[in-house]
Amino acid sequence: MTTFRVALLVNNELRRGDESLIDEWRADSDDRLWVDVQEPTQETIEPLLEQRFGFHELAAEDTLSPNTLPKYDSFPNYDFFIFRTVAINVTEHISETYKIAAFLGRNFLFTVHRRPLEAANNVWDRLPGDRRILARGNDFLLYSIVDMMVDAYFPVLEQIEECVDDLQDTIFENADPMQLDELLHLKRDINVLRRSSLPQRELLNQISRGDAKLVQREHLIYFRDIYDHMFRISETIDVDRDQMTGTMEAYLSVVANRTNEIMKVLTIFSAVMLPLTLIAGIYGMNFEHIPELHWLHGYPFALGLMISIAGLMLVYFWRKGWIARPRKRGHDH
After folding, report:
1. For position 299, which CATH number holds?
2. What does the alpha-carbon distance between residue 253 and residue 297 come to, in Å, rounded to a whole number?
3. Considering all CA atoms of the chain, what is the largest pairwise distance in Å, rounded to the nearest integer?
4. Which of 49, 100, 200, 322 could form a disulfide with 113 if both were Cys (CB 3.0 to 4.6 A apart)?
5. pLDDT tens digit string along 225-268?
6. Mean per-residue pLDDT for 143-171?
7. Where are the alpha helices (DSSP H) in the chain?
8. DSSP 3-state assignment of 87?
9. CA 225, CA 53: separation in Å to the nearest integer?
């Protein structure tokens, strides 16, 4: 069900209500209007946007499309923006993308989003106690919403970094396939953030340069601050991706070293058993005339020969360092 929240600031007096409050706003006045639309449908939003306020049909179409990337379009009487943010449950590895479309005019702001948006809700709740948010201009109101959307990236990145640090510690202690599975899920989460942050960084760069004509010059510094945050987020994402790649390589290296150790033990065991098998095979042949076959000490001689050869081979492997030998302790000088 489509819900409308309307805030109207007239002579520093704030009024809030539903869409009926829009009728009390005049486009040629200095009154400030904010219309926030949640869960829009084509039947309810297109008459409002296209017919009542004359917004372009392509902008209205982008408003309803769930896959539109962050963008900025300039129209004669308003600016049109698409912003996105991402909410990720790092424990369950469930990600949700939130989109908000904004129509910014001289004295109005329309925001449209499909699902409840925490940033818009927070600003709506703050308005009665701080009406300066709307009094300073609708562009400042837009900044307040976008600023909270961008700042929502930081807690998610911190959680991901903590998970990667924990994985690095446990991998060197005891590498396990579950750790690789967790690492791949974290890498997917960081890629979701990256896909959302890159186009948004470019959009905020456009606004901070002054390309949006309806963003007041004195408020550009606030959008530059958001752009700096978005730039830091993008850099952090790249660092985290590199860290995950390094962690994955460390995991594969630990597993490969463990496999090599196992193969070394099996190879040494096979090498020791080879001459013993040869001796047993020689004396196990069914020939009648074998000199040692009827010798009184033939059996203990064969066993002693096997033990001696095995012992000499183990000593040889140990001296070569192929079998772990105790480390020499350094002497204090």
Report:
1. 1.20.58.340
2. 52
3. 122
4. 100
5. 999 999 999 999 999 999 998 888 888 888 888 888 788 888 88
6. 91
7. 42-46, 57-64, 118-126, 132-135, 138-151, 153-173, 177-208, 220-283, 298-320
8. strand
9. 31
Percent of the chain with pLDDT over 90: 42
For residue 122, the 8-state DSSP code is: H
Spatial neighbors of 15 by CB under 8 A, at least 6 apart, are 7, 8, 9, 21, 24
Residue 177 shares a structural domain with residue 299: no
Q: How far apart are CA 249 and CA 69, in angstroms?
A: 33
Tokens of 5: 């929240």
- Got the DSSP string for 137-174? -HHHHHHHHHHHHHHTHHHHHHHHHHHHHHHHHHHHH-
Residues 297, 199 share a domain: no
User: How many Å apart are CA 53 and CA 108, to the nearest integer?
Assistant: 11
CATH of the domain at 52: 3.30.460.20
Instruction: For residue 80, give both structure tokens.
Output: 């049109």
Mean of the per-residue pLDDT values for the chain? Answer: 87
Determine phi and psi for 295, rounding to 5 degrees: -75, 140
Q: Are residues 207 and 299 in the same domain?
A: no
How confident is the model at residue 250, as a pLDDT? 86
Q: Structural domain tally of the chain?
A: 2
Place of tokens 């020791």: 272
Task: Give dist(CA 117, CA 125) in Å, integer.
Answer: 12
CA pseudo-torsion sign 263, 265, 266, 270: positive
Q: Which of 240, 162, 165, 231 is nearest to 202 (CA)?
A: 231
Residue 328 resides in a domain: no
Which domain range does residue 311 map to? Answer: 260-320
